[in-house]
């Protein structure tokens, strides 16, 4: 970070006059400060290195004491030394600063200071003129106990849960037989050997893509995130296992780092958490798609058991064969039962029954038709007798006759109903019951 100072320098509420420092640009990286000076220096009037360092020391001395939190690493101390030395770094290993710890603060700490321990120190920044190095002179060291760390972890756990990172709906199912298992663990660690041995014993054809990373300390979380990205981009890796063989809350702190948790949440490949610590579970267990209690359990989860699979296939074959035999027996019994039915035992029985029924129906139809014909015949005879009784033939039979006159031109015969139709000389035809008589009109006389 660069800070341009014009007319004065301010930091932590303390200002330095330009006549003390001139105009400076400060660059901070890993506890080192590099200074580039502008006016009142020039090419002809440069400052000596010691001058620059002295001015920086004066400015830093005005900062005063500060409380700083971080992780202790590279601790060095001998009983005959006047001070202990260490490096304090952020959990993500993005920044660090050297420490010079007062002997009393080091030796009188209630908990022995060790690498990886989370602490809060009260220190005064110091700048060494001869070496141009910045460090912190530590007067007090306060160890962040497991309870403090667990409280911070639980606070972060609640925040991430509210954001939905642990929702069951987003968790993915593991493949039954993965093409390749991605394994992130410590180099030559017990966790790595357990996962490989158990998985290979269960499924001899299993294939691993292994990336070894630190599994504790400040460098662990960034390294695991990088490995996670590499395995997620590998199309052959179907599942990723993050394994470690347990440890204290401090040891497992990287597996509760927010950056790692969010990286796992964004990973498209299913992730199995196998940290191996039951009482205080790291947050990784919550965001992972599957949580295994130990690396051995993780191997059993991602690699199917070949013996069990073969046994299951054999059992399925037996059950399928038994089911098929049972179905065949059932269908055979059904066919036997159907064949024993009268309709199949004597198939012509129903034909004979229907034949008798048809014959009976035919006889009934004939009798009905004959009766109908007889009734119709009797009715016809009666109607004929009535017609004959009313017809002209019956009248003729009783002695009556019909006289017709024949037209000389058309030869058509017309019944004579008036004497006007038959003048004397007219040709007549007289019909009687047994024939007709031709005659001629001689005389006509009106009725009286």
- Radius of gyration, Cα only, in angstroms? 62 Å
* Main structural class: alpha/beta
The helix fraction, in percent, is 25-40%
Largest sheet: 5 strands, mixed, barrel
Instruction: State the oligomer.
Output: single chain
In DSSP terms, counting alpha (H) and pi (I) runs of 4 or more, how many helices?
A: 13
Global geometry: rod-shaped
Domain count, please report it: 6
Instruction: Estimate what percentage of residues fall within beta strands.
Output: 25-35%
- CATH-defined fold name of the largest domain: Rossmann fold
So what's the CATH class of the largest domain? Alpha Beta
Mean pLDDT, to the nearest integer, reads: 82
Q: For the record, what is the CATH homologous superfamily label of the largest domain?
A: Response regulator
**How far is it from the N-terminal to the C-terminal residue, by CA?**
164 Å
As residue ranges, the low-confidence spans are 1-38
CATH architectural designation of the largest domain? 3-Layer(aba) Sandwich
Strand order of the largest sheet: 6-7-8-10-9
Number of strands: 19
